[in-house]
Records
---
Amino acid sequence: MARSSSNTMLWLLLAVFASLAAAGAGRGDDGRRSSPQVYVVYMGAVPPRTSPDLLLESHLRLLGTVLKRGRRADSVVVHQYKHGFSGFAARLSKDEAAALRRKPGVVSVFADPVYQLHTTRSWDFLQQTTTTAAVKTDDSAGPARRRSSNKNKGSSKPAAPADDPSSSTPATDTIIGLLDSGIWPESPSFNDAGFGPVPSRWKGVCMTGDDFNSSNCNNKLIGARYYDLRSVRGPSPSDGGSPRDDVGHGTHTSSTAAGNAVTGASYYGLAPGTAKGGSAGSRVSMYRVCAESGCAGSAILAGFDDAIADGVDVVSVSLGASPFFRPDFSADPIAIGAFHAVAKGVMVVCSAGNSGPDAATVVNEAPWILTVAATTIDRDFESNVVLGGNNSAVKGVAINFSNLDRSPKYPLITGAAAKSGSVSDTDSASHCEPGTLDSSKIRGKIVLCHHSQSDTSKLEKADELQSDGAAGCILVNDAERSVATAYLDFPVTEVTSAAASAIHKYIASASQPVATITPAATVTEYKPAPVVAYFSSRGPSSQTGNILKPDIAAPGVNILASWIPPSSLPPGQKQASQFNLVSGTSMACPHVAGAAATVKAWNPTWSPAKIRSAIMTTATTLNNERAPMTTDSGSAATPYDLGAGQVHPTGALDPGLVYDAGEDDYLRFLCNYGYNASTVRLIAGSTLPGGFSCAANASKHLISDLNYPSIAVSGLLGKATRTVTVTRAVTNVGAQEAPTYTVAVSAPAGLDVKVTPSKLEFTRSVKKLAFQVTFSRSRNDDGDDDAAAKGALSGSITWSDGKHLVRSPFVVTS
């Protein structure tokens, strides 16, 4: 099979097919609509002094005005939203949906979208890295990556209580809600030993469903709900509802965010140590909105609506839309639900997406969301290639339980040399694309295959090679090197192009080349780490170019956390592992949700914006070599890759200063984004004065003035604008009542950055102070614009009182 020439085109085609499939849902073979489709009707904030029962009645009355004769409103409703916001989801015809769009009080009507899931040592690594690196902020490039051998050490080290915020949380009453694929309650991560009674403010429930009842909840797992997922699972009777996880994703994310410390955890001996969540003292509530095939937008909104009413403190959302077909804010279930959650004081943390390393692929971009990118940790899984002749070893990475002889005795062949006679494309054969190899040439041999992101998946290649009788496979793979893929019972390892050159040289020089592949071994204290994972979606935001996204980075590569019981065991294993190693921004998101819950526990009155600020401004941009972080390709990491940097959970407990923002700020953002005043009034409801109006000069450029912990400015490097000034305000939350902060600026060539005033002097009565940042294009000696001032220029401003470093990254573009 010929390989696609563009990874972006591949993802685009997949997204088109998914969109066409969704659009075709409910149509017969002749293309005519055979049944109504689910639409979401969003009506903004709940009207004041309106009971849920009255709100539900009003929804049904409104719906009844557009339904065709013979259709009852209560028979077509799928969900009704009545706590955090107003609206409903119903099975409607296209004409009925169009009629509802024209009704007063309706913000938007949109077809129910299907979103996708963004599919330990990580917490110890965060403490080790940030403790040594947080005091230095340097935007220069770092060295190439290398490893230190440490095969015999365990995968986790005990941290002192003072360095581990999860072990010193002042209360166990913080509640993390997860919108995900469900939960496996029997996991030891959710044992409630040592937990007191459920907080009295909790209003949630433990729903009974298939193989799930109220006894599955306890004082740790305090809530579990599930929703109608027929739009993503189909109407099969076997697809009954339950909060129980049959995918594994929700169990993994919830244990990463708030799982108990479980000693002796590993994945069949790999990554051994103690698995624990970021806020082990927090309670957990699961809102099952996803099946393996996807997540229904109408269910996502129902999950947000219930989580707000139940009383969660933090919502963790490891899923999102396609970066190629993302909806606008008023038609995005995550943006809608998150807006109303934040307006009610609930922190919302979302994954950035797994469509990297292409630019402008970040999703969940609304400024009221904390958006998380993924990075590696200092652990690797080494599976080496041993070559015949002198038994030299070539370093490889994969998760396999190879049963090959440790001596190199298996014939070694390249995919190109094993090309089928019926195939003319040698390049596809060299990549071992399915159908391109002669099975008689590879039987009993180890096959060397090249791989790129636009190829058929690695697992598909491995499956075909295994079924054709190959002894093993060596994949030459540069882009995906940082993620150890699990091949389990088939001996596969992955090597870089540089390492593969030694293998090619050996094959060319030996008359009968032979090799073997060793089983995976855990290597810790890998350097440099963290690096930004290749799959992590990148900025700039295509929706909000004057908001810098993603916001923060966290571990998301080969994360060990709880899992559902597997359907089969790897070779030689007699007992199922309760844990799994999984990668994705899905895994990074709950790391930050756990950190946010800990900050909330220490500061119960803080707004979501203050918590976000504490997390962002205390992040580190250094790796475990005390050098600036890079991407996994070795290039210098920019704010478009990792936002403010790698999360520093302990540092976030004492940020010194915070940037606050509230619902009014986000409503002004919506005005500047382009929504008219009547729509904004509907979204906000009674929180706005009756005469509210968007400013006459509302503009997307004014979005840069949102009191955000990072700064993004567009239009400066073009010909029209030479200077842009933005305003920020910070609040002193440190122990010292009257500190003085001075500013340090790190600016790239071609850009002049001035902060006014350069010193902030707080007093007992003055806790909040404003400052301005002016960005100007540099001029060279001839008075012309500096040629270096092109593209995206990034740097940072850092306020310090001698103890705290309050760092804000910035990006300036044309």
---
Amino acid sequence: MCGITGLFDTRGQRAIDRSVLQRMNDSQHHRGPDEGSLHLEPGLGLGHRRLSIIDIATGQQPLFNEDGSVVVVFNGEIYNYQSLIPELQALGHVFHTKSDTEVIVHAWESWGEDCVKRFRGMFAFALWDRNRQTFFMARDRLAVKPMFYAVLDDGMLLFGSELKSLLAHGGLKRDIDPLAVEEYFALGYVAEPRTIFTQALKLPPAHTLCWRRGEPMPQPKAYWDVRFSLDNPIGAEEACAELRQRLEESVRLRLIAEVPLGAFLSGGVDSSAVVAMMAGVSSEPVNTCSIGFDDPAFNESAFAQTVADRYKTNHFVETVKSDDFDLIDTLARLYDEPYADSSAIPTYRVCQLARKRVTVALSGDGGDESFGGYRRYRLHLMEERMRSALPPTLRRPLFGLLGKVYPKADWAPRMFRAKTTFEGMARSSVEAYFHSVSILRDPMRDELFSPKFKSALAGYNAQQVFERHAAQAGTEDPLALIQYLDLKTYLVGDINTKVDRASMAHSLEVREPLMDHELVEWLATLPSSLKVRGQEGKYLLKKAMEPKLPDDILYRPKMGFAVPLARWFRGPLKQRVRDAVLGPRLAATGWFNPAYLTHLVEAHQSGARDYSASLWTLLMFEAFLRNVVDGAVAPSPTEPADMVMA
């Protein structure tokens, strides 16, 4: 696991300023504190920060092929590299290391752009082929690892694992993209391929960018997609057995390391399943890490302890105070662009705990998307059944009217909170799902934004992100469609972003067995009835794990990794919220309606409404403006042993 960065002159062979490249590389020191190296040649500069995991002795980067004509910087893990080495050796390639990185340069030589199709893992890499005068970037199928890039006005391409490395160059404009702001306030993150800055982009999941020097800028090219065929005739019992085999294989692949390795254990189904599988294939007790909260409403540590006891793991627990809100500015600097998932706080803390014990941790991330675990899936399917019972010509006007006139009753018992359901019933499937996952829904954003900002949007709505992906989904199955949307949006923009930044802030590698692309592909062949059955989500995973986990782990209500925002904003953070939301920095943008900002604060703090998610989104946006836009992102400390490779 590492940090990569660099520059590529797309038009010629201008000299690369070593001090600039060094600064870009130093900004990501936290991603790789063990070693740092640079490679410079005319028109190209590559930087690498190394967190040593595999082939510690000889796996340094940038790494070259036999004659030095191909060089790569790589972040991630190629889990099937050991099986690819003999295949490449049979094709005549000579290996000088035992690292997965060297597989990339030889695979490029033999298979060109299609090399990525042979890799099973999480990866982002940039490669230069001097003989072909070709620069090549790639990102893994589910975007576990990040890749940012920008092309400056003079034709210089910048890239990096984090946006801060591009900002450290000094030439990237900090002009904010209004369309990215719209996406952020709808979704809580800026969706791929956009970034918060107009000039910078994210390489989308499962895409490559291949640029021959001197040619016009190419478009990123997709090399993979998941297809929900739902046509596997397998029975439930056979599916459970095959799932256990596939989970075991996925976990086993992710246990290769030359450093201490463990797992996150929350006590939920996904992380517990991963730990159970690890225990079954490990010769030593598994190291597990959990955090508890001093507020019982958010504390799952007892469930984690149950799993730890069953499998006799080396279990480490730390309790986090429920008023752990001193990370706001730290998170703003860490994420480089606005990011509004408040579970970033406990995620940061559990990574901090894990790094005290291990260098690599396996997680249960990705299970909800592929197995059908989110509560919103069950609600959406219920609405879909109601939507299909009425023709759109009747349904839209009837429920549209009910949605407008029915009061929003956050204070009422759940059965009386029908406004959201009515609004959803008036929409198409994609519109309704976007509406259900939005932090500030369309009517709220309409009130939030000023006329000036709406003019800059020119009619753009973040729903277009979902519509673009839905057009590629290839399925009309109600569950499969929203699973596909989440795999393309929420998993990438929220979950993987959160875990990558939080873990790498502590120089911790996190591996994701439930996001193995072969497992995801197989699950997509199974009928939706094996994922959500009645009111039970993750049906297949739970049934498959019944021999390995107790029912009170498998079938208890999902808690999630939450923090008590509503209470914070009426108590210890009351003044901070007022200062941020109603203060000069947001006002200076001219993008927001001051009267609506005041309404959000006053209504929440009086107890009339729960606007905690909206206020957190505004709080983090204000922190981003202060920490990133107004001030330079502070680089990490420089590693004194850095070397230059020429």
